[in-house]
Fold this protein.
Amino acid sequence: MAEIIRCDGVTKRYKEVLALKGVNLSVPDEGGIVGLLGPNGSGKTTLIKLLTGLLTPTAGQVSVGGYEIGVETKAMVSYLSDAYALNEGYTVAQQVEYYEDFFADFDRGKATKMIAELGVDPRRKIKALSKGTKEKLALILTLSRNARLFILDEPIAGVDPAARDYILATILAHKSANSTMIISTHLIAEIEEYFDYVIFLKEGQIALQGRTEEIKEREGKTIDALFREVFRWI
């Protein structure tokens, strides 16, 4: 079976800190939404940065879409970090143009449509937007690429319930059936119904991975309840 993500014996060390410890991971290339779950310090962000090519492993191999991390994989991954980067001096329209120039797979029409749905004037400076609107704009720009793998790092953390509903609705409405999406989140109860596949990271190692329905049937618990059980001493 084809894999969208594969990690073989992946270790990442930061000086004295071992962030990932021999991680073996395989996510089938079936589309769908993958929940990347674990407490702070479990290695989630390190794994994400390895997948995006922002970090290199100390040992082991990481591949996306059958390619080792490099030029090919960077072209197929669209990443929304928990510290999104927008140019405060740009207008919304200028930020769209920047993405169009930078990413060959960027769909300007899709971005323009979602920005109109958000009710933002493209002529407005980004620095004049509210924090919540900036977060939504960053999400829209990320989703407007025709990528094979989308990685969203805590997209619904720190936002009010109304904004959370908007973000989830936008994700579900605009995700391509042929793409895979990784969502790293602590808010499992609010979003687990959308997970097709889950990965539990604990102290830099895989504690559990597999298809959501198979895990729920086998364990007789929701993903949120299982998460609380696995991580109850942390």
The beta strands are 3-14, 17-28, 32-37, 59-64, 67-68, 77-80, 149-153, 180-184, 197-202, 205-211. The mean pLDDT is 91.
